[in-house]
Amino acid sequence: MRVALLVNPAARAGAHTGAATHAAERLRAHGVQTSILSGGSAAESSALLRTAIEVGVDAVVVAGGDGTVNLAIQEVAGTGVPLGIVPSGTGNDFAATLGLRELDVTAAADAIAGGVTRAIDLARVTRADGSTRYFGSVLASGFDSKVNDRANAMRWPRGGSRYNIAILVEFLTLAGIPYEVELELADGTREHVVGDLVMATVGNGRTYGGGIPICPDADPADGLLDLVLVRPAGRLRLLRLLPRVYRGTHAGVPEVAMRRVRSVRLSSPGVTAYADGDPIGALPLRVDVVPGALTIFTPAG
Q1: pLDDT-derived band at 110, boundaries 50, 70, 90
Q2: Known active-site residue 110
Q3: Which one is catalytic: 104, 110, 222, 278?
Q4: What's the whole-number mean pLDDT along residues 269-282?
Q5: Domain residues for 60?
Q6: Does residue 62 contact residue 136 with C-beta atoms inside 8 Å?
Q7: What cofactors does this protein use (predicted)?
Q8: Nearest by Cα to 278 from 82, 71, 51, 35
């Protein structure tokens, strides 16, 4: 097996920790031919990976976090080329959804060498200009995208605790945002929601922000996306909601609506959405599920 291993040294905290080197050594010990690709920018990394796929690698591996994985997803989606993940970035939510433990490089490399794969869904975002992009875990808009704005601007602390601090700071100025949401349910029924929301979140995976289970029941292989809408309430009321979000038990809260959808269109003035932890575009955006679009390596058993 010939593998292209992508590492992004420009990532905020991740792949330069040595995970890529360790993973490459482990794969080679299994007899897997491994070439490390390292671009100086996202565009260069994508170009290197695209060339490797065109030349003919058997698999792509990413050592890094959600942002670097997202780069690889754009190139391998729909190709049948399997993707392996060595979770070693600031946020590893997509890997966690797939059952891969953060920084367990040996287990991740062994899963790739084992060759067991499965097909999972991706979400495809269509922007107002018609351009598209895939994501694997969660798209955030509203309060949680503002949290991402703040967390990404922070240089300290690293890891998931940045999101906790950003949540508390943004909470101080929390207010409802006017939204229009058009959605298609699993049975083809359409719904139209107009009004103020605190946030609108679309999940292919379960967690974001370093492990927050915003879509606790999401299954990346069920052919559907999980939509979470949170309506405004008093600040004290919403503050009580936060611990339930962290436990993934917020489904029963009156201000929270959850739907399983095939597609959803989100509109709101001045709101930028984030997906897999990075900005993906300003609303309005349409999000569709693409069943079985990605082949991934998975731990045996």
Answers
A1: very high
A2: no
A3: 278
A4: 92
A5: 2-115
A6: no
A7: Mg(2+)
A8: 71
